[in-house]
Design a protein that fits this description.
The protein is mostly helical. Helices cover about 70% and strands about 0% of the residues. The protein is globular and about 70 Å long. This is Prepilin peptidase. InterPro entries: Prepilin_IV_endopep_pep, Prepilin_pept_A24_N, Prepilin_peptidase/N-MTase. It comes from Deinococcus proteolyticus (strain ATCC 35074 / DSM 20540 / JCM 6276 / NBRC 101906 / NCIMB 13154 / VKM Ac-1939 / CCM 2703 / MRP).
Length: about 400
């Protein structure tokens, strides 16, 4: 069967993206508020009047209404058509770089991945949080689409399941380790005052240490064993960070003198920490969802004391989703672009004497889009810079 003409594919992807962009606006509005994304039907947030189909045509409804609600005249944020248009253009670009006729389900997976990135970034800009409802299912979706790629249902160039799992664990592990070490420094190397029960940063740090010597599975097993002990004791059994974090750093530094490959130890440590971080994130997501559903509250102990953090846990889980969809190379390109973009914007804001209130999540999302569309070019350019 002949391939569909490229203009038809791109226009179809554009229209599909516009429609999904309309749904993305629902995610951006409702997820932070703990509302159902399916009920009630779309309505004006000012007057609560249900919206008719003619009010929901992406971009064009906003333009025809002059940016105001048909029923109460309240202004409609420009974010709505902007998100729809960005999604439409992005879906067309993805269809161009990853033709559906060749990549099949892989193209759809990358489109859904972009929606996760866009919705997460918009919510992060508003609330300084990235919902678990986006990141953790994103990790699962990335692994699922990678399994399809490994089954030969897509063209080459996308990660298989093994690459996706490695990318997810390494992505979460890298950012989690930055958070662990950064928080330790911010606390001036003092122990945590508010450890999580039964699983949290202490168990992840333990996985970092054990993973360096025995691999990620043993690292995760040690974290789960520690969590089980905490649960049985109904209190936190402390694990000194001087032992876990200090030991992990010393292990990687001195492992070569003991006949160990330092890169393999580093890989095992990061994967172990990443695995424990994702399991901890899944546990707390389920726990909070259960508490909220049982109590009817939308926030749980928001003003509870906490130890200083160098990296948001939402960013850790987002990096895991990036790795699941793009593999380890995609994670590394995403981080590099994110750091570069953050540095540039930081310099601009310093020159303008403006406060930088932008979290790392949107930078990471920008890096992921660059990695998805131009990652191979970035890697080739970087290798050329190094003469490799």
């Amino acid at each position: 069967m002949d391939l569909l003409p490229l203009p038809f594919v791109l226009i179809t992807a554009l229209v599909f993206g516009l429609l999904v962009g309309s749904f993305t606006n629902v995610l951006i509005w409702r997820l932070p508020r703990g509302e159902s994304i399916s009920f009630p039907p779309s309505h004006c947030p000012h007057c609560d009047h249900p919206l008719a189909p003619k009010d929901l045509v992406p971009v064009f409804s906003w333009l025809s209404l002059g940016g105001k609600c048909r029923y109460c005249g309240a202004p409609i944020k420009t974010r709505y058509p902007t998100v729809e248009l960005i999604t439409g253009v992005a879906y067309a670009l993805i269809a161009y770089f990853y033709p559906p006729a060749l990549y099949g389900f892989g193209t759809l997976g990358l489109m859904l991945f972009f929606t996760i990135l866009l919705a997460g970034s918009a919510i992060d800009l508003d609330t300084y949080t990235i919902p678990d409802e986006l990141t953790l299912p994103g990790v699962a979706l990335g692994l699922g689409f990678a399994a399809l790629a490994g089954a030969g249902l897509t063209a080459g160039g996308l990660p298989n399941f093994s690459d996706a799992l490695n990318g997810a664990l390494m992505g979460a592990g890298i950012l989690m380790t930055i958070d662990l070490l950064g928080s330790w420094v911010l606390r001036r190397f003092r122990e945590r005052q508010y450890p999580d029960l039964p699983i949290g940063h202490q168990q992840i740090a333990l996985a970092l240490l054990v993973g360096a010597w025995a691999g990620p599975l043993w690292g995760l097993g040690a974290a789960l064993l520690s969590a089980a002990v905490n649960a049985g004791a109904r209190r936190v059994i402390p694990i000194p960070e001087l032992l876990t974090l200090g030991g992990a750093l010393l292990s990687v530094a001195l492992g070569v003198n003991l006949g160990r490959d330092p890169l393999a130890m580093l890989n095992g440590a990061l994967q172990g920490a990443g695995a424990a971080a994702l399991v901890a994130g899944l546990y707390w997501w389920i726990q909070y969802a259960f508490i909220q559903k049982k109590s009817g509250e939308t926030e749980v102990e928001e003003d509870a004391p906490f130890d200083p953090s160098a990296m948001g846990f939402g960013d850790v889980k987002l990096a895991g989703a990036i790795g699941a969809f793009l593999g380890l190379s995609g994670v590394l390109v995403s981080l590099g672009v994110a750091i570069f973009a953050g540095a540039i914007l930081g310099v601009i804001q310093m020159a303008m004497k403006a406060e930088n209130r932008l979290k790392f999540g949107p930078y990471l999302a920008i890096g992921a889009v660059v990695a998805m569309l131009w990652g191979d070019d970035v890697v080739s350019w970087y290798r050329g810079m190094l003469g490799l």
